[in-house]
From TrEMBL:
UniProt xrefs under SUPFAM superfamilies: P-loop containing nucleoside triphosphate hydrolases
Protein name in UniProt: AAA family ATPase
A family per Pfam: AAA_28
Domain NadR/Ttd14 AAA: 5-166
Length: 189
C-alpha cells in the first residue's frame, strides 16, 4: 500500500487531529500548506494571508503543495496530506475566476479517493491561523465537494466520530481500494 492521500473538507472538521492520529500510528503526514503560510506570514509581517490577499495566499499554497508532493514521492507507504494542491487551486479559482482546476485533471495526482471532513459546528473553533467564521468554512467545503469530482476524484465523507474510529475507517477504505486495484495510478502523476 502506497501513495499520497488527501484529507480535506471543512475547516475545523478534525483534519489536523486525524493527521496527528495517523502520524501516531507511524504514517507520514504533511501539514496543511495554508497553516504553514499563515504562521510564516504572521511571523514575518507578510501580506500573503487569506484575509489580506487571498490570491497571493492561494498562489503560495499551490507552490507549497507542489513541493510537498515532490517530497512525498520519496516516501514508502501512505503519505497523508492535510489539504493539498486541489484545495489551493480551488481557492485561487474562487478568488480570481481563473480556470485552474481543469489544468490538474491529469497532472499531480493524489490517490483516487479523497477523504473530506464534513462541517461539524460542535468542534469548530477559531484560532490565530483560522480567523474565518463557520459559514465561510461551510462555503469552502461546498466548493471542495464540487472541485474534487470535477477533476476525477472520488469523494468520501468521513464520519463524525472519535479520531480512532475515523482513522480506522479511512485505513479500511484504503485497504479496500488497494485490494480492488483503485489505488493512485502513477502514470497519472
Amino acid at each position: 500500500m502506497t501513495g499520497s492521500v488527501v484529507i480535506s473538507g471543512c475547516s475545523g472538521g478534525g483534519k489536523s487531529t486525524l493527521l496527528d492520529e495517523l502520524a501516531r500510528r507511524g504514517y507520514a503526514t504533511v501539514e496543511e500548506p495554508g497553516r504553514r503560510i499563515v504562521k510564516e506570514e504572521l511571523a514575518g509581517h507578510g501580506a500573503a494571508l487569506p484575509w489580506v490577499d487571498p490570491v497571493a495566499f492561494a498562489r503560495r499554497a499551490i507552490a507549497m503543495a507542489l513541493e510537498d508532493q515532490t517530497l512525498a514521492e520519496a516516501q514508502t507507504g501512505w503519505t497523508f496530506f492535510d489539504r493539498g494542491l486541489i484545495d489551493a487551486a480551488a481557492a485561487l479559482q474562487a478568488a480570481t475566476g481563473e480556470a485552474v482546476l481543469g489544468t490538474l485533471r491529469n497532472r499531480h495526482r493524489y490517490h483516487q479517493t479523497v477523504f473530506l471532513t464534513p462541517p461539524w459546528p460542535e468542534i469548530y473553533v477559531n484560532d490565530p491561523e483560522r480567523r474565518h467564521g463557520f459559514e465561510e468554512a461551510v462555503a469552502e467545503y461546498e466548493r471542495l465537494t464540487a472541485a474534487y469530482p470535477e477533476i476525477g476524484y472520488e469523494v468520501l465523507i468521513l464520519p463524525k466520530t472519535d479520531v480512532e474510529t475515523r482513522a480506522d475507517f479511512l485505513l479500511r477504505r484504503l485497504a479496500a481500494d488497494n485490494f480492488l486495484g483503485t489505488k493512485r495510478d502513477p502514470s497519472r502523476s
